[in-house]
Amino acid sequence: MAAFINQYRGILEEHLRLYSDQLRQQISVISTTTYLLTILALCLPPILILTIYEIEEARLRAEEPKGCRKLGLKIESNLLNEFDKKFSEGRPPSTEETSAEWWRLKSLWIYPVKSCRGVELNRGSVISSGMEYDRQFTFAQLRSPFPVTLDTSDKEKAAHKWEFITQRQFPLLANVRTEMWAPDQSVGSYEPHADDVKSGGVIILSFPYQEVGWRGTVAKWGAALKGKVPEKYFRVPFDPSPTQIEKAGYSYEKMTIWKDSVSALNLEIEIPEELRYYLGISNKLGLFRIDNSKLREVHRNAPTKATLGYQPVTGFQDAYPLHLVNLASIRDVERQMPKDSPRLSAARFRANLIITGPDAYLEESWRRIKIGFYEYDVSCRTARCKMPNVDQENGERHPSEPDKTLRSFRNVDEGTGPNIGCLGMQMVPVAKEGSLRVGDEITVLEVGEHLNTIWVELKGSSQEDVD
Q1: Closest CA to 194 of 46, 82, 65
Q2: 112 preceded by cis ω (within 30°)?
Q3: Distance (Å, rounded) from C-alpha 320 to C-alpha 332?
Q4: Model pLDDT, residue 436
Q5: Most CB within 10 Å of its CB: which of 72, 149, 351, 383?
């Protein structure tokens, strides 16, 4: 058999040599002009495409919010090495002798629009409702048990209501990118009376979209040359003034998030129709901004107003102002998953704070901690739904993982209800104002037991998570 293979290989090598000789002979008779024209014909189209794409990108950059600075890292993500084996095992808390082993804040995130792509920070401010700029907006759809006609009574029309949406129903929300632009006096274009400054900043959203026709084709090719996909952009003011609200035609409307009915500012007129088609939504789509004068109060396992000195509140977070996960705990869950499962990135859990150092699940014994210079009440475990099944890089939803694994061995809190997996901790800031920075040390001030009360409150109708 080996002799046959060697004979066959020899025949192939001889044919290859003959073909190479013939090719070299042909090339030698091609003129320099023809050769250059051929090279130019091959290279010119992608150069033109890339030039047109860059011109369009420059136009978009020229429309950047005036007097504002884009929040986020200018370097690679702090989660780039999250799968390093050193994060799978816990380390002792800091002492003077083991300063290199300190428990640290590894990655810090805000999600300006609920269930959309987040913004990773190096440092950020903490306010009573959580991270500044976090989950101030949410998409919602107009739901009704029946269609409305011209003859529909006012009572029946009232049955229509806005309900928030998340990746639970529409996983492609993960591909809606958000840029948070905040006013900054150090920016050259800063003017205190500029519209973008007066609105407290601007959020720029984008989603995958290819325009019909030659422009769309060029955009697709140009984006592909840079390893991207073409996108459609739109922008909304972060916190418009009453004058800006009236001028733009925005309106306050009632909308529902879980069991809460809140009055929020609807900016639906800014949403391009293509987004609804991309997400696969048949109902009317709205974009709501929380009214910071009417924030949602947090009770359940949170400290009381009498204990804390102020009433805990949230914007459009599911339940609590802040969410923390321990990278060692995530790696342990991943070890329990089937071998053919996708890698379990911490990004799937959409936490504000991702920490390293403690042993897996040790965070579940904490009741009060200090991160950097500020203290936090560790209120309860996070009950998980199926949303972490969605890959935050592409919006693809795995049919079972990590939800199935979490339910199999992380049903550790009787208060969350039967067969509900837990991972991560919900927190409330002790001070109404604070700050966080990647690398901040974590110190445990108080430990104790946890029992989530969500099952009793919601009577099994839903469950708390983070999106």
Answers
A1: 65
A2: no
A3: 25
A4: 98
A5: 383
Q: Is the pLDDT of residue 268 over 50?
A: yes
**Alpha-carbon separation of residue 436 from 104, 130, 186 (angstroms):** 11, 11, 22
Residues 365-415: tens digit of each pLDDT: 999 999 999 999 999 999 999 999 999 999 999 999 999 999 999 999 999
Residue 38 Cα distances to 29, 33, 320, angstroms: 14, 9, 63
Indicate the range of 100-114, 218-232, 345-359, 425-439 predicted with least confidence: 218-232
Burial class from Cβ neighbours inside 10 Å (0-12, 13-18, 19+) for residue 389 reads buried
The amino acid at 116? C
Q: Tell me the pLDDT tens digit for each residue of 55-73.
A: 666 555 547 999 999 999 9
Ramachandran bin of 357, using left for φ above 0, alpha for ψ from -120 to 50, beta for the remaining angles: left
Residues 6+ apart with CB under 8 A from 324: 351, 352, 353, 354, 355, 363, 378, 424, 425, 427
Phi, psi of 169 (to 5 degrees): -95, -35
pTM confidence score = 0.85
Neighbours of 154 (CB within 10 A): 6
Q: Which residues contact 159 (CB under 8 A, 6 or more apart)?
A: 144, 145, 146
